[in-house]
Amino acid sequence: MFFWICVACGVVILAFILIPLVQLLIAPAPEMMKKTIMDGDVRAALRVSLSTAGAAALISLVFGTPLAFFLARNNFKGKKFIESVIDLPIVIPHPVVGIAILSVTGREHWIGRILGDLGVRILGSHVGIIVVLTFVGMPFYINAAKHGFEAISPRIEYVSRSLGASMIGTFFRVTFPLAFRSMLMGVIMCLARAISEFGAVVIVAYHPMNAPVMIYERFEAYGLAYSLPISVWLLLISLAIFLVFRMLSMNVKGAA
Amino acid sequence: MIVIENLCVKLPGFSLSDINLRIKKNDFFVLLGPSGAGKTVLLEAIAGLVKTAAGTIRVNDRDISRLAPEKRGIGIVYQDCCLFPHLNVRENIEYGLSYHKIEAARAAELFGVLVDKLGLGRLLDRKTISLSGGERQRVAIARALMIEPAVVLLDEPLSAIDPQFRAELQHQMKRLHHSTRTTFIMVTHNFSEALSLATSAAIINGGRIEQQGDLMEIFKRPCSRFVADFVGMKNVFQAAFEKSLARVNGISVHTGAEASSRKGYIAIRPEDIVLSVTRLDSSIRNSFMGTVDSVIDKGFTCEVCVSVGDTVFNSLITRSALVDLGIEPGRELFVSFKATAVHSF
How far is CA A101 from CA A69, A96, B166, B243, B301, in A? Predict the structure, then answer.
């Protein structure tokens, strides 16, 4: 009986996820899809989405990896607090993230003044979008990478060091290859989160318009039918990226 | 020579205090102790992998106490091997070469010797994930010795291996030790394993060294109750083997099988030794006349020490048997045990 309850729940959930997505994919006519992708504005919006999400994932990788490694290898007072701080962006409502970032990057805040003096503009800029996407995406990367590092016995690293490798040498020759899969999964999660972000972006940078903002604008201005094709394109691109990374990580698993 | 003086390590919930050890160059030294005694922590402290709170470690007159692990020239082999799973056997063994100035010809020669002595020839291109426990341990030992470290630390290398392969690896380790200039420090809790490999040892308990010195001396003259209990294995005698006969202090003991070497040790468990007033008329091949030295009350059982010449046998008998046989110090008795009860190593 319990088995069939589990199966029934599974079927309902799968249907719940798949039916809207399949409907989305089959709704727009092929010529409408073609016409949409030929539209320069749409291509620009998709480019903005991909480039800013990619930059956010890259920043998370470069700056998040050392922190994830540090947290995985050290126990200290206040570690739980730091981990909670890292998780904060996951639970903060998205528009609040945008407001919070704007509040420290405006001229009335010292950080905003320094950025202004350096010629860095946050409001309505690519940089602003990247800042927002990094803010919301980085926790996903750090958590995945940290779990990857935790799964590697520190003793393997000890052995490497006893054989003459420095800490950095050990990281690149042992830890990184072994944690690569987790790090890649972290990048996927961060990228997926960043591509899908709307609430925070719309506050910080309505322009340059990224894909979710454009979908919202077209929906508001012209209705559902007009916002469907670009939604499908964003979905297809996201799926393609997800599949490529997934295949990459499976290859790595096979190699190990 | 490795000299450790006043070494202290403080970890949350555990500490090593005042560790003093002197280990001769090229020695095979064992560190014996129960679980949680601090054996692995001590090894990791020597290797520089855990922070020391005080004390010095000198290897061949070089103070290495403050050096990073990679600068110490000390290899470590863990019980769970810790092979690099993304590298094959050859790549694992050669991992350390890029960090050491070892001539290519010398490296090739050393590689050949290690592969040959540890029987790794067929495994070189295998993934480490497909190796058996014994094979993994042999690869880990070869990897550590490939960089010709001054010292190699072995953390219970034999304990995770099937008993039938243990003797083989033990033998290989002994041969390797003879052919290298490396000092071996091995952690174990198995006394017979220690006896067959090493000559000197230290007993560690609760983060302190209880006793150190010659292994047989520790066994014969334990300095504390803990060491006596820990060493536990009674009736261990040095012996010279001739086929299936072991000569111990002038008496000949029949053993169950032919020994593989000419000199070694025999051990008989106290409960396997039978005491009788007259010579037993049975298939038991070892029977000697002796005199009761002492009787130690152990509750339900009694430990009876009987001298046969210069050799003292410990026998464990029930209290009723003690009364029935009228055993008391000075009484003459027969000490008998089966050839199969004799453990030789």
Answer: 27, 9, 63, 86, 79
Looking at the complex, report in whole angstroms how far the Cα of residue B163 sits from the nearest Cα belonging to chain A: 25
Whether omega before A208 lies within 30 degrees of 0, making that bond cis, reads: yes
Residue A96 lies in a domain: yes
* pTM, two decimal places: 0.78
Compute the distance between CA of residue B93 and CA of residue B118 in angstroms, rounded to an integer.
Answer: 12
Residue A46 lies in a domain: no
Q: Which of B47, B70, B149 comes nearest A165 by C-beta?
A: B70
Q: How far B81 CA sits from the closest chain A CA (Å)?
A: 9
- Per the structure, the complete domain to which residue A102 belongs is given by 51-206
Let me know if residue A242 belongs to a domain. no
Question: Domain B2-231's class?
Answer: alpha beta
Instruction: ipTM value, please give it.
Output: 0.80
Q: Which chain A residues touch B80 with a CB distance below 8 Å?
A: 153, 155
Q: Which residue of B11, B46, B95 is the best one to mutate when testing the A interface, meaning the one whose CB has the most A CBs within 10 A?
A: B95
Q: CATH number, domain at A155? A: 1.10.3720.10
Distance from CA of A55 to the nearest CA of B (A): 29
* Domain limits, CATH 2.40.50.100, in chain B: 236-344
Rounded CA separation B264/B171 (Å): 13
The identity of residue B115, as a single letter, is V
CATH number among 3.30.70.100, 2.40.50.100, 1.10.10.350, 3.40.50.720, domain B236-344: 2.40.50.100
Q: How far apart are CA B119 and CA B89, in angstroms?
A: 12
Our count of domains for chain A comes to 1
List where CATH 3.40.50.300 sits in chain B.
2-231
CB contact under 8 A, A164 and B147: yes
Chain B contact present for A251, CB below 8 A: no
- The tens-digit pLDDT sequence of chain B (345 residues) is 899 999 999 988 889 999 999 999 989 999 998 888 889 999 999 999 999 999 999 999 999 999 999 999 999 999 888 999 999 999 999 999 999 988 999 999 999 999 998 999 999 999 999 998 889 999 999 999 999 999 999 999 888 787 778 888 888 888 889 888 899 999 988 877 888 888 899 999 989 998 999 988 787 666 776 776 677 667 888 889 988 889 998 899 998 778 777 888 787 878 889 999 888 888 888 999 999 999 998 888 899 999 998 899 999 899 888 888 888 899 999 999 998 888 777
The three-state DSSP-derived secondary structure of A81-130 is HHHHHHHHHHHCCHHHHHHHHHHHHCCCCHHHHHHHHCCCCCCCCHHHHH
Q: Do the domain assignments include residue A241?
A: no
Question: Are the beta carbons of B69 and A162 separated by less than 8 Å?
Answer: yes
B129 chain-A contacts, CB cut-off 8 A: 256
Instruction: Considering only the beta carbons, identify the residue of B44, B82, B100 that sits closest to A164.
Output: B100
Q: Are A162 and B99 an interchain contact pair (Cβ–Cβ within 8 Å)? A: no
